[in-house]
Automatic annotation (TrEMBL):
Repeat positions for TPR: 168-201
This protein's record includes keyword Cell membrane: no
Signal peptide boundaries: 1-18
Coiled coil (residue ranges): 24-51, 77-104
Species name: Aliidiomarina minuta
Function statement: Mediates coordination of peptidoglycan synthesis and outer membrane constriction during cell division.
Family the entry assigns: Belongs to the CpoB family.
Protein name, UniProt field: Cell division coordinator CpoB
Positions of the YbgF trimerisation domain: 33-107
Cellular compartments annotated: Periplasm
Lineage of the organism: Bacteria, Pseudomonadati, Pseudomonadota, Gammaproteobacteria, Alteromonadales
One Pfam family matching this protein: TolA_bind_tri
InterPro entries: CpoB, CpoB_C, TPR-like_helical_dom_sf, TPR_rpt, YbgF_tri
Keywords noted in UniProt: Cell cycle, Cell division, Coiled coil, Periplasm, Signal, TPR repeat
Length: 251
């Protein structure tokens, strides 16, 4: 009898459980959850896009800095070479002056003629004014750094001594001085003088390079390319060739 009662109770309990409603997730709640997920994804994508944009900006800035540093390095290397060249020129001028003084002292010593007369003979006497004029002009550049004052000195030297052995150097230095103050038209004339008429000059490679740079600054890339290639062909192992090659890559 007791067992029968228990079974009846269990039957009623099962019916009650079967009739109770199952938990239901509302459509509104589901929609809200989906929107939240989409919103999180959008924020994530936006954040990632901003990070990528910042990285691209930083990369572009780094590339510009590398390019600028490369240009500065090349320019400093050329300036250093110019300083070293000025020092070499200064040493050569000192050696030349010492040699002249020795020659003058030796020549000033009295010598006996065949008739017993004492004679004096001064070496370089014919070129004394030429040497002094060149020394004065070059000293303004290499020693005193009075560049503006050196310009008329070199011009006067070129006009006064058109056949001087220093003529190629005089044209080079005058071209350098005019180039430094951006007087490209006149500087070109003196550099071309060295290139065309003083082919053995140690300054010729730099004159060719300067002619290419002047053409590049004036927007004449064709002529600039021609001059840079001339440097590479005629002076392939020089510092000027390295600079010319770099300039060609930027054309």
């Amino acid at each position: 009898m007791r067992i029968t009662s228990v079974l009846i109770a269990l039957a009623f309990t099962g019916v009650a459980l079967a009739q109770s409603p199952a938990p239901v997730i509302s459509a509104a709640h589901a929609q809200d959850s989906l929107e939240n997920r989409i919103e999180r994804l959008e924020r994530l994508l936006e954040s990632r896009g901003q990070s990528q944009a910042r990285m691209m900006q930083q990369l572009g800035a780094l590339q510009r800095e590398v390019s600028e540093l490369r240009g500065v390095t090349e320019e400093h290397a050329h300036q250093l070479e110019q300083v070293l060249e000025r020092q070499r020129d200064l040493y050569q001028e000192i050696e030349r002056r010492v040699s002249e003084v020795r020659s003058e002292r030796a020549a000033a010593a009295p010598t006996l003629s065949t008739e017993g007369d004492t004679q004096l003979s001064m070496a370089y006497s014919d070129d004394l004014s030429e040497n002094q004029a060149y020394d004065r002009a070059i000293a303004l550049v290499l020693e005193d750094r009075q560049y503006e004052q050196a310009i008329p000195e070199f011009r006067a030297f070129i006009d006064t001594f058109p056949d001087s052995e220093y003529l190629g150097n005089a044209h080079y230095w005058l071209g350098q001085l005019l180039y430094a103050r951006n007087d490209y038209s006149q500087a070109r004339q003196h550099f071309e003088e060295v290139v065309n008429n003083h082919r053995d000059s140690g300054k010729r490679a730099d004159c060719l390079l300067k002619l290419g740079i002047i053409a590049q600054n004036e927007g004449d890339d064709g002529r600039a390319e021609s001059r840079f290639e001339q440097v590479l062909n005629e002076y392939p192992d020089s510092t000027e060739a390295t600079l010319a090659r770099s300039r060609l890559e930027d054309l």
